[in-house]
Sequence to fold (179 residues):
Amino acid sequence: MSKRVIVLSTSLRKHGNSDALADAFAKGAKEAGHQVEKISLIGKKIGFCQGCLACLNTQRCVIHDDADAIVQAMKEADVLAFATPIYYYEMCGQMKTLLDRANPLFSSDYAFREVYLLTAAAEDGQHVWQRAASGLEGWVACFPKARFCGAVFGGNATEVGSIQKSDALQRAYTAGRSI
Fold:
């Protein structure tokens, strides 16, 4: 059965390593027969959540910027995949801001059931991406119908394109293909 997949590339670095992971995951999902949309945060205006909680009643944010449309796309997706560079052993600030702005989904009839994390960092080792995964798992825990399905990490990715030297792109492709 074909699923609607949203791949969210949260890095602001054009053609960066986490963006390459997003592309590989999207390619795998497309080849598996799913409907895939990649959303990049490059050039998007996304303000910080104000904590007003009006969205819990309206299912829409009172801030009318690019996050509103992205969150509505997330609501309709069956699968979400977040791609982020790792900064100081954590997801990038743009990703965290987007997760905070997705608060309207909390009280909505969201469709997503599967959530993936795609990460790249200059440092290597299993400990490097685990805090980012923990942060995303905390967000997913607020959505009882959804589950965290796993992470793909590519280390030693410092310069644009250096992710090509690892097997992380193949693992991201395989993860997308396995949906």
Observations:
- The helical segments are 17-31, 55-58, 66-76, 93-101, 127-141, 168-177.
- The first strand starts at residue 4 and ends at 9.
- The beta strands are 4-9, 35-40, 79-87, 90-91, 114-120, 147-154.
- The mean pLDDT is 96.
